Amino acid sequence: MATQEPMLDRAPRRETAGSGEGGRHWLTKARPSAGSIYAALVVVLSAWVLHSFLEALLAACVAASASWPLYRKFVACLPRRMARSAAPLLFTAGITVFVLAPLLFALGALLAEAHALLLTISAADREGIAAPLWLQDVPAAGPWLVANWDSSLARPGALSTWLQRIDPAALLTGANSLGHFLARHLMIILFTILVLFLLYREGESLAQAARRVLRDRIGERAEGYVDVATRALRASVSSMLVVGLFDGFACFFAFALAGVPHAALWAAITGALALVPFLGYAAVAALAVQLALAGAAAPALFSLVLGGLVLFCGDKIVRPMIAHSGTHLPFVWVLMGCLGGFEVLGLVGLVIGPVLLALTRELWKERVRALAPGEA
Fold first, then answer.
1. Exposed (0-12), middle (13-18) or buried (19+): which is 134, by Cβ within 10 Å?
2. pTM of the predicted protein model
3. Would you call 231 exposed, middle or buried from its count of C-beta atoms within 10 A (0-12, 13-18, 19+)?
4. What integer is the mean pLDDT of 243-260?
5. SS in 3 state form for 61-115?
6. Which of 4, 134, 351, 353 has the most CB atoms around its CB within 10 Å?
7. CB neighbour class for 32 (10 Å; exposed up to 12, middle 13-18, buried from 19)
8. Residues 156-160: contacts with CB within 8 Å, 24+ apart?
9. How far is CA 24 from CA 8, 20, 21, 27, 219, in A?
10. Which among 295, 332, 352 has a CA at the least distance from the CA of 136?
11. Using alpha carbons only, what angle is made at residue 341 by residues 340 and 343, rounded to the nearest 5 degrees?
């Protein structure tokens, strides 16, 4: 007698996402192989080795991506035999001057003003630094402030005596920290320039290779993600430049209205430093201190208030408004992306933060679109 098959074996089988050839193929791809584990280990170790250069790599990638359309136009204007060899070097030099020259000018002018102020204070200390006339008119605390000033600084050499009380070890520690800070950022700038040159020279091949890898891993959606990231990145870089120009011109009118001497120079310093968040406030504060020590209390107060208001509007209103055109994110999300990125990654985070949020928004929209037909 023929043996009957078990009823369970004769029951119709439901095809599931994990059954059949397609399911076995998916499980086979999902199961990590020795080669993929080795590749992941190599990538992780490489990232660990290069983590100190992360800021330089990100800054170079941001600068190259944002300026790539200009670079292609520049290459098209050169003779063909120069395009491959000279174009990356010349354009890297041009971008470096365009970015660093305003900052170096602003820092140099600020240091020159600080040096002149210190010389004035040192000369006044030889005969005793008299209290500013406006200090007496400070409400409630004016006479008390003048009395303390006269007892502390009005005597000849009083400031020098006070400075001699500072612990030399504390000064050495501060100078050491400042030296480390300057050396680290100088290294970041140098490696950013070097990587930027390499990206201009090999940019086409690197971009094509990256697109092929993304298309292989993600699919056709990779092109959409690259476009979203590129638009958001260029809009974020444009917002930095617009903020610098806005702060420079607006501060010129604010300082001129407050009666500040050399208003154009101080506005240029503030606008250049405003490219880096919070450095603009340092320029406004330095101006206010200089005016206050010179006895111009009203211009000092007006320049401090108006300059701070201009910088606040530039950072918190103008920057997110310009970045919104490329990221298509609500105002508050652009603002949080800029501030959060700056907190985590420094200056380059002002660009990376909104880009990441724009990609997150795109992923969210695709997920919602994918779920919509099933819910209907």
1. middle
2. 0.73
3. middle
4. 90
5. HHHHHHHHHHHHHHHHHCCHHHHCCHHHHHHHHHHHHHHHHHHHHHHHHHHHHHH
6. 351
7. exposed
8. 156/125, 156/126, 156/127, 156/128, 157/125, 157/126, 158/125, 158/128, 158/129, 159/121, 159/125, 159/129, 160/125
9. 22, 6, 5, 5, 20
10. 295
11. 65
Q: In a 3-state reduction of DSSP, which class is residue 286?
A: helix
Give the CA count within 13 Å in the CB-facing half-sphere of 352: 18
- Per the rule left: phi > 0, alpha: psi between -120 and 50, beta: everything else, 79 is beta
Q: Is 111 within 8 Å of 117 (Cβ atoms)?
A: no
Measure the CA–CA gap between 253 and 257, rounded to whole angstroms: 6
Q: How far is CA 277 from CA 60, 86, 157, 341, in A?
A: 19, 34, 38, 12
Residue 138 to residue 141: CA distance in whole angstroms = 6
Burial class (CB in 10 A: 0-12, 13-18, 19+), 233: buried
For residues 168 and 174, give the distance between their C-alpha atoms in angstroms, rounded to a whole number: 10
Split at pLDDT 50, 70, 90, the class of 190 is very high
Q: Between the CA of residue 347 and those of 2, 97, 120, 216, what are the distances in Å?
A: 80, 18, 35, 33
pLDDT of amino acid 22: 45
The conformation of residue 314, written as its DSSP 8-state character, comes to: I
With tokens 């406004």, the residue in question is 284
Report yes or no: 318 and 243 within 8 Å, Cβ to Cβ. Answer: yes
Q: What is the CA radius of gyration of the chain?
A: 30
Dump pLDDT digits (tens) for 96-120: 998 888 888 888 887 887 788 778 7
Amino acid at 208: Q
Q: Which two tokens stand for residue 226?
A: 């690259």
Is the pLDDT at 148 greater than 90? The verdict is no
Tokens of 281: 């406030």
Do 81 and 247 meet the contact criterion of CB atoms below 8 Å apart? no
Helices 221-258/349-375 angle, 10° precision: 130
For 316-362, write each residue's pLDDT tens digit: 888 888 888 777 888 788 888 888 888 888 888 888 888 888 888 88
